[in-house]
Write a structure and sequence with these properties.
Strand order of the largest sheet: 2-1-5-3-4
Strand content: 5-15%
Helix content: 25-40%
Number of helices: 5
CATH architecture of the largest domain: Orthogonal Bundle
CATH superfamily of the largest domain: [2Fe-2S]-binding domain
Number of domains: 2
Distance between the termini: 45 Å
Structural class: alpha+beta
CATH class of the largest domain: Mainly Alpha
Largest sheet: 5 strands, mixed
Mean pLDDT: 94
Shape: globular
Oligomer: single chain
Number of strands: 5
Length: 161
């Protein structure tokens, strides 16, 4: 079936089977390999992209579901988090970094919109600040096998201020 996706600001036409995941469409059909395939089950977050500014696991999404929506992959990101990750050693091998950055961008937007988390039910109780516990909770869907979590948290805190 033919679909049109808006990827990183450009309209892209694809002929895909209805069961093709958004992740596979990005990597195999469009050659956008910055988005990584980790577990292919939605458990690791390596495939996180932004759909209309909200973070999603591309491995769990069907490409046909996102027709006409704006998809942002790491290739389309230009955000202060990228430099902050470098400054704070927020990555080691780099495999999870695209998903971490896309997830952090989405998470910062959720926090700005006042979305609660399991760490803080009411943002007003914390003054709206993102502390380490809050960042770790909100980023818990993104795993890093190298253990660069301290640098990731530092990068997010730096940009959140």
């Amino acid at each position: 079936m033919e679909i049109e996706l808006r990827i990183n600001g450009s309209a892209r036409r694809l002929d895909v089977s209805p069961q093709v995941s958004l992740l596979d469409a990005l990597r195999e059909y469009l050659g956008l390999t910055g988005t990584k395939k980790g577990c292919d089950q939605g458990a690791c977050g390596a495939c996180t992209v932004l759909a209309d500014g909200r973070r999603i696991n591309a491995c769990l999404a069907l490409a046909v579901q996102y027709q006409g929506r704006e998809i942002t992959t790491i290739e389309g990101v230009d955000h202060p988090l990228q430099e902050a990750f470098v400054r704070t050693d927020g990555f080691q091998c780099g495999y999870c970094t695209p998903g971490q950055i896309c997830s952090a961008i989405g998470m910062l937007a959720e926090h700005k919109d006042g979305a609660p988390s399991a760490a803080t039910e009411h943002l007003a109780a914390t003054g709206g600040e993102l502390d380490d516990e809050e960042i770790r909770e909100r980023m818990s869907g993104n795993l890093c096998r190298c253990g660069a979590y301290n640098g990731i948290v530092s990068a997010i805190k730096e940009v959140a201020k």
